[in-house]
Write a structure and sequence with these properties.
- It is a single chain.
- By secondary structure, the chain is mainly beta.
- It has helices at about 1-15, 170-180, 310-320, 380-385, 495-500, and strands at about 25-40, 45-50, 60, 65-75, 80-85, 110-115, 120-125, 140-145, 160-165, 190-195, 200-205, 210-215, 225-230, 235-240, 240, 245-250, 250-255, 260-265, 270-280, 285-295, 350-360, 360-365, 370, 390-395, 405-410, 410-415, 420-425, 430-435, 440-450, 465, 470, 475-485, 490-495, 505-510.
- A hairpin with a 2-residue loop joins β14 and β15.
- The radius of gyration is 23 Å and the shape is globular.
- The protein starts with a helix and ends in a 30-residue tail after the last strand.
- This is Plastocyanin-like domain-containing protein.
- It comes from Gossypium tomentosum (Hawaiian cotton).
Length: about 550
Amino acid sequence: MQLHLAVVLLCATAGLFAIAGAEDPYRFFDWNVTFGDIYPLGVRQTGILINGQFPGPDIHSVTNDNLIINVHNSLNEPFLISWSGIQQRRNSYEDGVYGTTCPIPPGKNFTYILQVKDQIGSFFYFPSLAFHKAAGGFGGIRILSRPRIPVPFPDPAGDYTVLIGDWYKSNHTNLKARLDRGKKLPFPDGILINGRGPGGASFNVEQGKTYRLRISNVGLQNSLNFRIQNHRLTLVEVEGTHTLQTTYSSIDLHLGQSCSVLFKADQPAKDYYIAVSTRFTSRVLTSTAILRYSNSAGPVSGPPPGGPTIQIDWSLNQARSIRTNLTASGPRPNPQGSYHYGLINTTRTIRLANSAGQVNGKQRYAVNSVSFVPADTPLKLADYFKIGGVFHVGSISDNPYGGKIYLDTSVMQADYRAFIEIVFQNNENIVQSWHLDGYSFFVVGMDGGQWTTASRREYNLRDAVSRCTTQVYPKSWTAIYVALDNVGMWNLRSEFWARQYLGQQFYLRVYTTSTSLRDEYPIPKNALLCGRASGRHTRPL
């Protein structure tokens, strides 16, 4: 009997993985998600731990690896993890946001089956439901190049994940309850560096050696500036793209953004401050970590290094200087510059304007006047099972029309293999940060004022950086080009987490009539079913 059960389980497991690349390596992860006491800012609060860790464990992988991640939900509420920047090629079912994936019920588990197909770079994962992100549950993802693919810099002596983000002393349940009452969140209480408050994290280096830092802004509300006392930072990678190796004294990371920098430990042997501070805020929050030389002659001294505070032009000029290294290889041997995006005619322009306002006396945020409300069934499942009444395509316009904010489950349709232009128009006084699941896009332009067709004359059509998260400065616009080569239901959202929670998001349904596996994988055999999809069947194991 035991032998028979083992054979059944083995066959079932093999069936689950059948859609992943058979020739590529597998990496297995087993995660237990729990609540636990944490003290990042010196007071006890409830955090979300993964295998007892806050932040969660790093995921180390190589281009094309299959990642089999078994998540046990030991919380007392539903839970989901999403994988920021992982493109889920042909497989939006695994994206881990509520529009694509049913939550893992309390006391149950779900196995994500991901492939980091044709990707390299630095990313992160995070919990996507119920404002859980304010409690932790996030961690770094790194995708290394395959051994025979050249990387445009020597192997560093060390490679560190650095997760930075603003933080509240209040439990996530209190923050969520405040938002549910229609109130705005207050200014955060501090900044965490790898889950620690000021002076809590440290990084060890040896004099004369070069190190890589993979930095992600996993915070909730604020753009952040990162710097190391008396050291220069050379940018080498942004969200999967090798960049021109420009050197900066400090670097801005907006919400949800990731990058890699190299620095050389070339200063006198002692301890140095790593400083992170808020940008574009009247009150500046600052936190520190320690860079510790192995032969350190003493502790940190003096004040932490200062950085830019409210200067927008400084940040805009830095953003424009981040460009693709056209001769470097990406995940494949061919140069990144071999894809000439600037020579492709766009087939559609979508203009998106964010806004804030009241609906029925409660605070809401919107895109083109539509404030997103989740349906009772994940949109991708409703689409697959052809369940009517869950959403309707075209519930959000291609252009802002300036009307009052209203509630809807907003879904925009786009054609598979179209090449489109998206313009983010920000008429508000704060920086916006936008993320598109399932894709990287070319950030071809950004400037102040209103976008017009004449703005296209400013576009960078040669070496714009390709990434998945972009900022839009106050009273400004940002334009991107996207090749819609990934069928699925993809979340386009604000990374300002309260705004996302209260409606500043929608889903882009990249659609084809084809049912070929070359275009989209079938629903996973182990997919959880909920809402109006409950009781239906995926595929036989």
